[in-house]
Automatic annotation (TrEMBL):
Subcellular locations according to the entry: Membrane
Organism: Oreocharis arfaki (tit berrypecker)
Taxonomic classification: Eukaryota, Metazoa, Chordata, Craniata, Vertebrata
Any single Gene Ontology cellular-component annotation: cell surface
Domain of life the protein comes from: Eukaryota
InterPro entries: Mesothelin, Stereocilin-rel
Gene Ontology BP terms: cell-matrix adhesion
Stated name of the protein: MSLNL protein
Signal peptide: none
Transmembrane intervals: none
Principal localisation: membrane
Family in the record: Belongs to the mesothelin family.
Record keywords, A-Z: Cell adhesion, Glycoprotein, Membrane, Signal
PANTHER family: MESOTHELIN-LIKE PROTEIN (PTHR23412:SF15), STEREOCILIN RELATED (PTHR23412)
Length: 513
């Protein structure tokens, strides 16, 4: 929200022409109407180097950014030329799946910029690679160098594509990347670690299972000095060759290695064997990735009494929790007397915050929202949005006399605001220039209570964007109850469908005889 406010301020001062001096992240929030046609290619090329995750995928602002870039580059259909792809940068990640086969091999390097591809995009990518009509050739001819050249695209390869790659090549790739990971002291970026784990899983699927033998470990047992050798063991070998005590002493080091989910389950089993009466709280802090393997029933027995323990468990370095797990974890923490602070709310995130029960949300101190940063509560029920808005209004009450800063802090919670508060913002005497995503996320019932002038004052310089969203059901229903004359005279952006004023007295119908 702060970047959005700053971008609007710079645009208002007509500084968009000097975009080269601004960081790419800030350019993501510039109003497209301020981008000049003569320099739009340079503008979008620079903006595409920003962190697109600052704009939620599918949001109006992110969609508008891509649409503006495509218009600037003269893209008319699904096919993009190499020069156009280069100018789009990471915006390529938001293109429709049909663009991938239509643009052909030229799009592959651009797709390497994407943190993740959708399922449909992955299908399209595999279909393109399976044609063999790319610089990589047919998958059956791929060697170690080919897989390395594919880079992050390896993550998107499906079983059909992988099955065509020689097993020896897959094994060489797994071993070479794992060895490089170990030799560099586990300092590779997170994306590389994800790639290692994904490919290790694909390779493990093709290996025959070992039978458990009475002879124990078929090779040398794992020790602290040989802990990295775990990556070369199958799950069965891991069970036989890694003792519970060695695991406990090296728990953090083991979890930094690229191992499969099946091998992780072996590690979880060993931890449970070590603590049959329950995992001590100090050990819970060390679970990391393994914590995500526990069921809701198991989590309900954990001793999570301190914020440090909860923070360690919620750390993103341990991977994604599912919603029911987080709900159980937070419920357990609160049931044992814990309290939710701002830093904890940041780690929980808006999505998981919405999974709390209303009575649990009521326990959150208003002060916690002041230090929680930006929380996305769009997935909450309307009742929970209203709860959190009331807390946010209390948290930021000291800023209420300065509408600009107040809006920037309260903006994520306005989806729970009553019409009365929205009207106060509209009539504060200072333009807040509400973005359209925030406007469309307002409580539909409360939005219907806003007048034409209220909406004009809220949107400010973003008012023309309302015309682009005229077919949105929320906008349609609001327009229907407004005077068409007022829509024309006050807004003047061409919205149609309002109430028409009567032009005269109608003649009553003559009764039939």
């Amino acid at each position: 929200a702060q970047l959005s406010c700053l971008a609007r301020l710079l645009a208002a001062k007509n500084l968009t022409a000097d975009f080269g001096s601004f960081p790419p992240d800030l350019l993501l929030f510039f109003p497209p109407s301020e981008v000049r046609a003569g320099t739009c290619r340079e503008f979008y090329a620079r903006a595409s180097r920003g962190n697109l995750d600052l704009l939620p995928r599918g949001s109006f602002r992110r969609t508008r950014l891509l649409r503006g870039a495509l218009t600037c580059l003269g893209v008319r259909g699904s096919r993009l030329e190499p020069q156009q792809l280069g100018s789009l940068g990471a915006l390529v990640c938001d293109l429709e799946p049909g663009t991938i086969p239509a643009s052909g091999p030229a799009i592959l390097d651009s797709l390497k910029l994407c943190p993740a591809l959708t399922g449909a995009q992955q299908d399209a990518l595999n279909a393109l690679l399976l044609t063999g009509d790319t610089a990589y050739g047919d998958p059956s001819s791929w060697d170690l160098r080919t897989l390395q050249d594919l880079g992050p695209l390896v993550l998107a390869l499906n079983q059909t594509t992988l099955s065509l790659v020689a097993e020896a090549v897959r094994e060489d790739f797994r071993r070479s990347t794992a060895a490089a990971y170990s030799s560099q002291g586990h300092s590779q970026p997170e994306k590389s670690l994800i790639l290692l784990r994904a490919f290790a899983a694909a390779s493990a699927a093709s290996h025959p299972r070992l039978r458990r033998s009475t002879d124990g470990c078929p090779s040398e047992p794992i020790t602290a000095s040989s802990i990295d050798d775990i990556i070369f063991l199958s799950p069965e070998e891991l069970d036989l060759c890694l003792s519970n005590d060695v695991l406990l002493e090296n728990l953090e080091a083991v979890q930094e290695l690229p191992i499969t989910t099946e091998s992780s389950m072996i590690l979880k089993k060993k931890v449970d064997q070590l603590f049959p009466s329950g995992i001590p709280e100090e050990q819970l802090k060390r679970l990391g990735l393994l914590s995500r393997l526990y069921t809701e029933q198991e989590i309900s027995q954990w001793s999570v009494t301190s914020s440090d323990t909860l923070s360690a468990l919620l750390s993103p370095s341990g991977g994604e929790w599912n919603d029911s797990q987080v709900q159980q974890l937070l419920s357990r923490y609160l049931a044992l007397g814990g309290s939710l602070t701002g830093p904890l709310l940041q780690e929980i995130g808006g999505k998981h915050l919405c999974n709390l029960r209303e009575e649990q949300i009521q326990l959150i101190p208003a002060e916690a929202l002041r230090t929680a940063g930006q929380l996305d509560i769009s997935l909450c029920s309307q009742a929970k949005k209203e709860q959190l808005y009331r807390k946010a209004r209390e948290a930021f009450a000291s800023l209420a006399s300065t509408p600009g800063p107040y809006y920037c802090r309260i903006q994520p919670y306005l989806c729970g605001a009553p019409a009365e508060d929205l009207k106060d913002l509209a009539n504060a005497g200072v333009a807040i220039n509400m973005d359209l995503d925030t406007f469309l996320a307002l409580n539909p019932e409360e939005l219907q209570k806003l007048s034409v002038t209220d909406v004009k004052n809220l949107l400010g310089e973003n008012l023309p964007e309302l015309k682009e969203a005229e077919n949105d059901p929320l906008v349609v229903s609001w327009v229907k109850i407004q005077s068409q004359r007022e829509l024309d005279c006050v807004l003047g952006i061409g919205l149609q469908g309002g109430l028409q004023e009567p032009t005269g007295t109608a003649t009553p119908a003559r009764p039939t005889t």
